[in-house]
Amino acid sequence: xIAAWGVEDxxxxxxxxxxxxxxxxxxxxxxxxxxKVLEARISDVPEARVVGLVGSGGNGGDTLFALARxxxxxxxxELLAGIAAVLVSDRGAHEAGLATAREAGVDVVDLxxxxxxxxxxxxxxxxxxxxxxxxxxxxxxSPGWSDSVAGRCRALFDATDxxxxxxxxxxxxxxxxxxxxxxxxxxxxxxxxxxxxxKPVHLLGTAPRCGLLTLVDIxxxxxxxxxxxxxxxxxxxxxxPVPGPDDDKYSRGVLGVVAGGESYTGAPVLAVTAAVAAxxxxxxxxxxxxxxxxxxxxVPEAVHGTGRVQAWTVGPxxxxxxxxxxxxxEGDVRQVTTAREALDSGxxxxxxxxxxxxxxxxxxxxxxxxxxxxxxGELARLLSRVEDAEITxxxxxxxxxxxxxxxxxxxxxxxxxxGSTTYVVPPEVSGLPVRVSSDxxxxxxxxxxxxxxxxxxxxxxxAGLDPYDAGGVAATVHGLAGHEANSGGPVRALDVAHAxxxxxxxxxxxxxx
Length: 513
Ligand SMILES: NC(=O)C1=CN([C@@H]2O[C@H](COP(=O)(O)OP(=O)(O)OC[C@H]3O[C@@H](n4cnc5c(N)ncnc54)[C@H](OP(=O)(O)O)[C@@H]3O)[C@@H](O)[C@H]2O)[C@@H](O)CC1
Ligand SMILES: Nc1ncnc2c1ncn2[C@@H]1O[C@H](COP(=O)(O)OP(=O)(O)O)[C@@H](O)[C@H]1O
Ligand SMILES: [K+]
What we know:
Elements: E1 2-4, H1 7-19, H2 25-42, E2 48-54, H3 58-77, E3 80-87, H4 95-103, E4 107-110, H5 116-128, E5 131-135, H6 147-159, E6 165-169, E7 191-195, H7 200-203, E8 212-216, E9 228-230, H8 233-239, E10 254-258, H9 266-277, E11 282-286, H10 289-298, E12 303-304, E13 311-314, H11 330-343, E14 349-352, H12 353-356, E15 370-373, H13 376-387, H14 393-398, H15 400-411, E16 414-417, E17 422-425, E18 434-437, H16 449-462, H17 467-485, H18 493-498, H19 500-512
Bound molecules: ligand NPW, adenosine-5'-diphosphate and potassium ion.
C-alpha cells in the first residue's frame, strides 16, 4: 500500500521529529537521500551536467545541500562535467544550504533582481543539463507559478533539453501539493524524490506529472490517518475472496444483475461475463427477452429470473427514460421497475450508468453498502439533480475528489469515479482515505469496459466485501486485466472480462510466493 498524508499532517510530523533531533538533521537526511538518487541517475552518463533550480524555501534548501554532496563526492570520482544552482526567487535561497553549496564548488547563478544576462546564462546552463533538479517549491508551494517567478521559470523550462532527466524534489514545482487542482502550470518530472511519506500530489490526479516516485526515509512518524492510498498487488490479493473447502456456490455469493434492455443488449453480456469470470458463486440475470437470450447464449453459467441474491449490479445499459415514454417497450419499462426494486431491496448494490438516474435520495444509512460507479459526466448529472444546481463534466474533472465526496456525503454511498485515474471516495464520516488507481491503460477507454467493471465490483460485493474494498479492488483488477488483455495495444471490453481469471490467478500466485 502506498499511503499519502495531507500537508498539515506532514508538517506536524516534521515538527515532532525535529524536536528530538539536532538542528538541520531532517533536511540533511532529505538531502543525503536526494543526492544518492542523483548519483545513481548520473552513474551511466559520461561527463554529466547537473543543474538545480532553487527556490527560497526548504525545497531549495534540500536541493542545495544535495548538490553540495554531489559536488564533494565528485572530487573523488570526477563523473561530472558541471554542477550548478540557479536561484530563481527574489528572496534568495536557504542560507546554510547556499553557503554549503558554494563551499563545495557548485556554480551559482542568482536571478534575484531580474537581470537579463543572468537569466540568459541560466538558460544556457539548463539547455546543457543532463539532469535537471527541480527544487523551486515543495509542500509550501501553491499551484502554478507565482507572478514574481513565472517569467523566469517559463524561460528556464522552455530552454530545457527534451532529453534532460527531470528530478523533482519532494514534488513537481507548480503542482498542487494537495493533488486537487489538476491543471496548474509547472513541472512535469521524470522522477520525484519525496521525503518521509508520500503526499496527496503523488497519488491523486496530479500523479502523472510526478513520474517515478522514489521515497526517502527521513524517520517521520505519522500520528494521523492518511488522506489517500493506492492498493498494491499484495493488498488486492489479501482482500480477494478466496473460497475455502466448506464453501458452496451460495456461500461464495450470488450476484443479481439488472442491466440492459431491448435497445442496449451488450451491457448485460459484459457485466455478467465479468462477474462469472471473476469467480462469482452464481450470477442471476434479470432482463427482457432479447438480452436474456444473448446472456443465455454467451454465458451458460448464468441463471435467469428472480431468486435470492446477496448483492446487485444495477444499471449497465439500462435506459431509465423509458419510464416516461408512452411508446416504450413493455419489457424495458418492466426492467426499470426491476431496477428500482433491486435498489430498494436493502441489499448491497453497485449502481451504474442508467440506474444512477433512478437515485433520488439518500441510500439507506444502515449498512450503507452502496457503490456508485459514475464517470465524470454521470457524476455531474447526478450531483446537479441531488444539489439542484448546474454542475458540468468540466467541473467534475477539475476537482474529481471534491465532487465525488459531495455525492458520497449526500447519498451515503461510496463513489467510484471512473477515468484515467479512478477514485474510490467514501463518505467523509467514514474517516477512510480516498483510494486511487492510476495504472490502467488508456486503451480501457472503450465502450463496455465500464460494464465489465460493474460486474466485477458487484461480484465482490456479493462475496461480502464492503463497497470501499470492492471499489478499490475492482478498480485495480480492472486496470490489470486491461494490461493482461493486450499489453500496449487496443483492448475490447469482452477481452478484459475474459482476462480476469488469468489476472486474478497471477495476483494470488504472486502473493503466495
Ligand atoms: N520542514 C522540514 O523539516 C523539512 C522540509 N523539507 C523540505 O522543505 C520543503 C518545504 O519547505 P517550505 O515550507 O520552506 O516551502 P517550499 O516548498 O520550499 O516553498 C515555499 C516557497 O516557495 C515560494 N512559492 C510558493 N508558491 C510558489 C509558486 N506557486 N511559485 C513559485 N514560488 C512559490 C515561496 O517563496 P516566495 O515566492 O515567497 O519567495 C515560498 O516561500 C519540503 O517540500 C521539503 O522539500 C525536507 O527537507 C524535509 C524536512
Ligand atoms: N484514459 C483512461 N485510462 C485508463 N482507464 C480509463 C481511461 N478512460 C476511461 N477509463 C476506464 O474505462 C472504463 C470506462 O467506463 P465507462 O465510461 O462507464 O464505459 P462504458 O459505459 O461504455 O462501459 C472505466 O473503468 C474507466 O476508469
Ligand atoms: K520541487
